[in-house]
Amino acid sequence: MRKLEVTSPAEVQAALRHEGEHSPQSRFVHRLHCLLLVGTGRSCYQVAEVFGDDPRSVQRWVREFQQHGIEGVREKPHPGRQATLADAQMRQLALALKSVPRVLGYAADVWSNQLLRAEILRRYGVTLSARHCQRLFRNLCQSLPQETD
Description:
Blueprint: H1 9-21, H2 24-39, H3 44-51, H4 55-68, H5 87-98, H6 113-124, H7 130-143
Helix pairs in contact: 2-4, 3-4, 6-7
């Protein structure tokens, strides 16, 4: 029987890595795969090379597994900075962007970053930077269903 080969290993690795970076569950499974290989006798350095990880990460996962079992390898919460606006407020803003700004008392027919900034200040008393409003505006517009002609 002929040996099967992947035609473009770099593309496969990139696709798998991308998938693994976007889901806590897939990161957990990735760590389990690394532990399985270490458990079969491969070194942390060999496993790290296969998966493109840092050997110290693999070592850390092995130590966590030894000390805490499977739970030690699960994804830990990443608290980070608390969001300035709550989810409910974001949903309200998304709904507001569906209407024309003139309906809300603005002298414009199209939403802009500056109008969004003014609306957030008016509704919630929160002042955001122009750059923050720009990102928020882009994200909110992307979350709106696209209208078809």
